[in-house]
Amino acid sequence: MTRQLDEQIVGRFPVGQRLRVLDVGMGQGTQALRLARAGHQVTGLEQDPKMIAAARESLAGEPEGIRERMRIIEGDGRDTGVHFLPGSFDVVLCHGVLMYVEEPDPLLAGLARMLAPGGLLSLLVRNGDALAIRPGLSGDWSGALAAFDTTAYRNRLGLDVRADRLKDLTSTLAGIGAPLHAWYGVRVFTDTAADGAEVPADVETLLAVEEKAGRTDPYRGVAALLHLCGVRG
């Protein structure tokens, strides 16, 4: 997904431009910190105190210049309008968040308002069109059968969450003024890997395969996750 995001940024903005980035639901700050290291001005918005503590700890170990380029705000992603003015950012990330939001449309509309004209909205969501893949490949036939007609699922943390369908999000993005520009699959072949599995020695080949599959039909359509990139009109 990092490679996909960089591809979109490079293709949309002049080389060397210092972008204003908002990472909504930044978690432990992996993407936010990476983009700050790349020279961008990054704001991370997160409501989980444990994640904020982890992000602050990682940031504290960075050189002063990087620390100055990144700020962390405690808050809910649905309240972006409370913290920021419309059009304040060139890039807005919302990765791994929508599955925890029962009604995502207001959140998405708020994210689109944060974008300057031509700005990039990057979403990472659970693929609602491929929920039967994981239980099917694991031999859970009853679970696979039930997954065909729902967007609800139980994640690896044991939480009951929801997925999004590409068709529905395409319509939503068009309706909020940030129509879909590109989309990718994420975790096409590796979704069934056990948590904590050892990284294979040929990880670069693995990443090359996943990257190729993530942009190639029909493989990307059955990926566990979808990476959608909308552009503010």
Short note summarizing the structure:
This protein is α/β, with parallel strands linked by helices and 233 residues long.
How would you explain this protein's 3D organization?
The protein is of the alpha/beta class and 233 residues long. The chain contains ten helices and nine strands. The chain has helices at residues 2-12, 30-37, 49-60, 64-68, 80-83, 104-113, 133-137, 141-147, 166-175, 203-213; strands at residues 20-24, 41-46, 70-74, 89-95, 115-126, 152-154, 160-162, 180-186, 225-231. The strands form two sheets. It has a seven-stranded mixed sheet, sandwiched between helices. β1 (20-24), α2 and β2 (41-46) form a beta-alpha-beta unit. The longest helix has 12 residues, at 49-60. The protein is globular and about 50 Å long. The model has no long low-confidence stretch (mean pLDDT 96). InterPro entries: Methyltransf_11 (IPR013216), SAM-dependent_MTases_sf (IPR029063). This is Methyltransferase. One of its GO terms (biological process) is methylation. Pfam families: Methyltransf_11. GO terms for molecular function: methyltransferase activity.
Could you name the key traits of this structure?
single chain, 233 residues, alpha/beta, 7-stranded mixed beta sheet, two-stranded antiparallel sheet, 10 helices, globular
